[in-house]
Specification:
- The strands form three sheets. A six-stranded mixed beta sheet has the order 6-7-8-3-9-10, with helices on both faces. The chain has a four-stranded antiparallel beta sheet with strand order 2-1-4-5, with helices on one face.
- By secondary structure, it is α/β, with parallel strands linked by helices.
- It has a domain of 104 residues: Tetrapyrrole methylase, N-terminal domain (Cobalt-precorrin-4 Transmethylase, domain 1, 3-Layer(aba) Sandwich).
Length: 383
């Protein structure tokens, strides 16, 4: 049974009495553990909605519920709620409070009055997660825009939130870091954090989200599965959006009879599997090896005879171990997808994987197998 964690009921908000509603009778629910994307063109109301959900703004009418209870806007109650619900703003300059990187990331945990050792561990882990460990002593204002975004993400991660709201987290980042951010979001979900994300990159959100809410002119015009929305071309156009590449390719190929419309592929690997339809071909084995942060990857790979396999990495504990072991990695980004593609070509491959990410790493292989597009054996090697 799903549990609603955040809910907006008929919410209206405007910035001044003379302006119109920025949020116009918005109603939507965010369920615990459901990967949720908020989509819409610039000015649709996404950022304002996030500020209302995080109690930064109080609705002019309607209400916001957290765990089924209406939000109280008393200072003590708001501080308690924000210790559990964190928001990552689109502009990193709105979230930098201290002069150097390490101090800024420690700001939130320090306000929680955590022990010094716990604060240091959280800072170390968060900076490693966003690839900024080498910049811990750097002045924040000397960093590039993308680096500042990484630092603000680290600051949010260091809070260990139960709910994380991310406003355009990949905007201004290079493509590799965008994949890293999506991997971090997936890991948070696997660890029980409810993640809500807005993004203009429909390709990234389509491969990730379980449910979407679409904002248009301050109204929520759609709530449901991504496929339900993208199947309505007029609604997509009116919302100022474009359908994801994987969805469009599947629609085009199904319209000319090359593939069936269902099941809907979410990634390039899944689209490729439907097109190839190589039922009688040879497929490789996808080996998924659980990796602890202190694992000796080189020794584990050699002990299992995997030294010649194409290798990808996925998840924070595996990345920690790789940083220590300096093991050879072929796919530092989007590891499970790239390794699954190797299996489609008849080659065995290896994913070095955080234990909580195993089910996520198997998704495309399961799509291929369950859809009858191939037979990729999945070998999970437990710690």
């Amino acid at each position: 049974m799903t549990q609603t964690i955040l809910e907006a009921n008929d919410v209206c908000y405007r910035y001044s009495k003379k302006s119109g509603n920025v949020l116009d009778h918005v109603s939507l629910r965010i369920d615990k553990g459901v990967k949720t994307a908020i989509l819409g063109a610039n000015g649709a109301g996404k950022s304002t909605l996030f500020s209302v959900l995080n109690a930064l703004y109080k609705p002019d009418s309607g209400e916001v519920l957290y765990h089924g209870e209406p939000l109280s806007y008393r200072k003590r109650n708001i501080l308690r709620m924000r210790s559990e619900v964190s928001i990552l703003f689109q502009n990193p300059n709105d979230m930098l409070f201290r002069p150097n990187v390490e101090q800024d990331v420690a700001y939130g945990p320090e306000n929680l009055k955590l022990p010094r050792e716990e604060i240091q561990k959280r800072v170390d882990d968060a900076l490693f997660a966003v690839g900024m460990s080498d910049f811990r002593k750097s002045p924040v204002m000397r960093l590039s825009y993308g680096q500042r975004k990484r630092v603000t993400l680290a600051g949010v991660l260091a809070m260990h939130p139960q709910v994380l709201i991310m406003d355009e987290p990949t905007a201004g980042l290079d493509p590799q870091m965008a994949y890293e951010v999506m991997e971090i979001a997936e890991q948070l979900c696997c660890n029980g954090v409810t993640v809500i994300m807005s993004s203009h990159d429909t390709n990234l959100t389509y491969s990730w989200a379980d449910e979407i809410h679409v904002m248009q002119n301050g109204k929520c015009v759609y709530s449901g599965t991504p496929e339900g929305f993208y199947s309505d071309k007029i609604a997509v156009y009116q919302a100022g959006l474009l359908a994801p590449s994987a969805f469009l390719m599947n629609e085009g190929l199904s319209s000319i009879g090359v593939v069936s419309r269902d099941p809907f592929p979410r990634t390039q690997t899944e689209v490729s599997a439907k097109i190839a339809d190589n039922k009688g071909g040879r497929f490789g084995t996808l080996h998924i090896m659980e990796i602890a942060p202190d694992s000796d990857i080189n020794a584990l790979v050699m002990d299992h005879g995997f030294g010649d396999l194409s290798t990808g990495i996925y998840g924070m504990s595996a990345r920690r171990a790789q940083d220590t072991s300096k093991a050879r990695i072929d796919f530092m980004y989007n590891g499970p997808e790239n390794c699954t593609m190797k299996c489609m070509a008849g080659q065995d491959s290896l994913v070095l994987c955080d234990p909580v990410m195993v089910e996520s790493a198997k998704k495309s292989a399961e799509f291929i197998n369950n859809g009858g597009y191939g037979d990729i054996k999945v070998d999970v090697i437990r710690l």
